[in-house]
Amino acid sequence: MQIKKLAVVAGTVGALALTLLTAAPASADYAPGPDDVVGVGSDTVQYAIDFLADGDYTGSTGYNLGQRNRIINFDATPDANARLAYGSGGLNGANAAASVCTPGTGGTAGTGNQTTTHTGDRPCGLNPTIVLRAGLKPVQRPNGSGAGYNALKADDVASTHNIDFARASSARGSNVLYDSVKVGTDGLAMLSATTTNAVALSTTQLKSIYECTATTWNDAGIGGSSSATIVPILPQVGSGTRSSFISNIGSSEGAITTGGCAVNAEENDPTAVAGNPNAIEPMSSGRLLMYQGKFADGTATGQNGYFTDPSCAYAVTTPTACTTGKVLAPDVKYWTTGTPSSGSLYNVSRTLYVYFRHADINSTKAFQPGSTRNWLRTLFYNPCSGTDLAGATISVGAGNCTGGGTYGPGGAPYLKNNGALLSAAGIDTSDSAIFGAFTASGP
User: Across all residues in the chain, what is the average pLDDT?
Assistant: First the structure.
């Protein structure tokens, strides 16, 4: 979502109406108030927090329903289908050095007031903006785990506290100022078109492909039969999926850049490979389940899929392809099975996080009027330790802990009791290490 805004449900409504009221993105003109909780960051984690905040597309409601102060979750992309907003121009791969981007687009900072184009960015992103709090000027939308975490840290440097948490699909660097909660796990495997020249690939084979030492499917060590050139696609710079994948295959940003054949695209976008028999990309299993209309355990949501055809105007019935609720069903293959010609199939599980300030654990500001908890203990992390709103020590001995000494006053945080909302975003919450003691992981 761009921003989710609470819609109040009055009277008896059908399931469809409830879904529209509680889960539809609000106008981009809305900006969070001073007591709302604001999050930014990972594309992979965004829908999990969207649904936790405002409910999912199956009709389940989220935290914000009926609350005065809310979770405002800025998605990584300005498009509700999680597509990147591209500017004009800009090439990828070996031609990146010749990319021509218009002023203000791409990764080169400080180009907004240029009167001429600039070169070298890949791809030329539109750099869409958001208003972090009501009354503030627009700033660049953080797109990805790294961008979100860096924005959280920059917020501290500026001493503004406009951002409360950052979503991440990979662990961030060590920093004593921040903690993180594990919100679930997600698979990461290779995606290709259904009709493809691709073959099952190991980490070693992927390393040679993305570093461009193997460029065709029939190159030695790859195991394919086609002489066609491989099109290796990577998520955008700053993406946690990108950094996880590059680390998984034993490569580095420098080696990828030097190779020069990898193409950048928005992460978890199956249209990047659809129809191209030679393209491959790492893809979130959770995001693919949303396209397929399935919960994290693979069972059907009953809604076919989440993403609708963006070429069709709202509620139109013609042409036939634009019937109401028409969902996108990309013609792709997800490589979770198969035997590479050498090594083991690349198919990993990764932990997803929400990062926050360590100091916010013991904040003495109540999240809701009359509440006994601050925002962090209400939503994500409420340990049986630290201090309460009055500054009193929280401990089992003090008699103010619950759940057998697991949680502080008020009990389990909202995240702990609402795993079904995360499951609708394809996020697996079955790991007992995530929702057991529910402790924050290291930064």
Answer: 87
